[in-house]
């Protein structure tokens, strides 16, 4: 896909990007790679938080269930841009205060790492509900049969729960991945050098706003189409042996 994007920058109207010294097209590609890195990292962090949150809501004690409910309620209620501003600035301030309390000097958090953390926290709340719903969609007879065979909880999770929940979880998780790729653009407000921020900087320097933002839009579209093709294959693999559903894998 990178080669295709490079060709996009080297031909036609978008070739103007490569003519701007020292090559604005390479800056956009660097921003694109940062956006993908942030989206992948945020998705992984969100999945980890989602697994913990779903487990707390379904199998945890009263305190764990209440904490998970508060987490998902707050994150899903507050606009994502507000959460990004709170977590990005307040999180860095709290970290430096904690370091100071232990006698360490303050530190600057890399923009990519901060972006992964911020979007990961947001993704975690939605992943919690997606995974919780997928687990609840598993026919309870399968779980009861596994218990009747004497399977341990960990074995039930590995042999029954995870394989059975995948077909129900993949559509929701795929949607969260696509949202994560677009939410990286919100990090431009705090100066993270992802695709939108780099595009805005290049467009402001050259005044070629239409060209640069159309190029950025084309890159986001290419990423979405590529992701959709991969997700479709994964969904068809997860649903193998199951009755076909109209539109599945699209």
Defining key terms:
0% strand, 10 helices, membrane, disordered N terminus, mainly alpha, ABC transporter permease, MetI-like fold, 250 residues
Would you kindly provide a brief summary of this structure?
The chain has 250 residues and is mainly alpha-helical.
Strand-helix topology:
Blueprint: H1 2-10, H2 16-19, H3 24-59, H4 62-77, H5 80-101, H6 111-136, H7 140-148, H8 153-183, H9 195-206, H10 209-238
CATH architecture: Orthogonal Bundle
Order of helices and strands: HHHHHHHHHH
Spatial shape: flat
Give the domain tally: 1
Estimate the helix proportion, in percent: over 70%
Q: According to CATH, what is the topology?
A: MetI-like fold
What is the gyration radius calculated from CA atoms?
Answer: 22 Å
End-to-end separation in angstroms reads 20 Å
Which superfamily, in CATH terms, is the homologous superfamily? MetI-like
Estimated structural class: mainly alpha
Number of strands: 0
Biggest pleated sheet:
none
Any low-confidence stretches, pLDDT <50, length ≥5?
Answer: 1-21
Mean pLDDT: 82
CATH class: Mainly Alpha
Q: What percent of residues are in strands?
A: under 5%
Number of helices: 10
